[in-house]
Amino acid sequence: MSYRSLRHWLALLLLACPLWAAAQSTSATQGKSFYREAWDETVGSTSETLRNGDWTFFIPLQTYHMPFAYTKEQRDEQNNNPMPGFGIGRTRALENGNSSAIYALEFHDSYDKPEWHLGYNYNWLWRTENGIRYGVGATFGLMMRADYANYAPLPFILPVFHVGMGRVSLEASYVPGIKKGTANVAFFWLRIQ
After folding, report:
1. What residues contact residue 87 under an 8 Å CB cut-off, 6+ apart?
2. Side-chain-facing half-sphere of 73: CA atoms under 13 Å
3. Active-site residue among 65, 108, 117, 162?
4. Strand, helix or coil at 11?
5. In this predicted structure, what is the pLDDT of residue 168?
6. Pick the catalytic residue: 99, 100, 108, 109?
7. Catalytic residue list contains 117
8. Which residue among 12, 41, 54, 186 is least crowded, i.e. fewest CB within 10 A of its CB?
9. Helix (H) or strand (E) run with residue 17 in it
10. What's this model's pTM, rounded to 2 decimal places?
């Protein structure tokens, strides 16, 4: 394992530590502060997801740069393989059939540099008679990349598309762009609960 890969895995571990610590904290808090109460309501019982959710693993699969936004030369230079990459989180099935997740994720960006996400994901899900789930959702949180303020944490919010069966799901997101040659990227990953 190269020093670069080791550094990426250590950074992901540092991102995942707060998830693990929060999941271990099962003591009920008395007299929640206004901010804590607002946070829990806003993201749909985040602390409940951390305490009682299932451990979930995220495996980045593919990045796709939209042909309308990039020249062929630009697309040939972009990295479409987000590996090595890995994510860990907690996912909870909600009573209404939807799902709530908190995660830490590391993968390689379009320039083959590490990118980190610490985020929350909510999916509105429907099921077919044969057990296939499909739905849409949103993910938001903080991201860190080399080309955006040299790894300074920046907020993001993105759509999520979901299809799955049993404990395995294929999810995708789309990063919109305003001008040619930036963003306009689809990102695909496996989610294993």
Report:
1. 12, 57, 58, 59, 60, 103, 104, 105, 106, 107, 117, 189
2. 0
3. 65
4. helix
5. 96
6. 109
7. no
8. 41
9. helix 3-24
10. 0.76
Tens digit of pLDDT for each residue in 81-115? 999 899 999 999 988 999 999 999 999 998 999 99
Average pLDDT, the chain: 83
pLDDT at 25 exceeding the cut of 50: no
Q: Which two tokens stand for residue 140?
A: 């938001």
CA-to-CA distance for 93 and 89, rounded, in angstroms? Answer: 13
Q: 187: closest CA among 91, 110, 130?
A: 110
| pLDDT tens for each residue of 143-178 | 999 988 889 999 999 999 999 999 999 999 999 987
110 is a catalytic site residue? yes
Tokens of 148: 């955006």
Radius of gyration of the chain (CA): 17
What the block records as the tokens of 86 is 């890995």
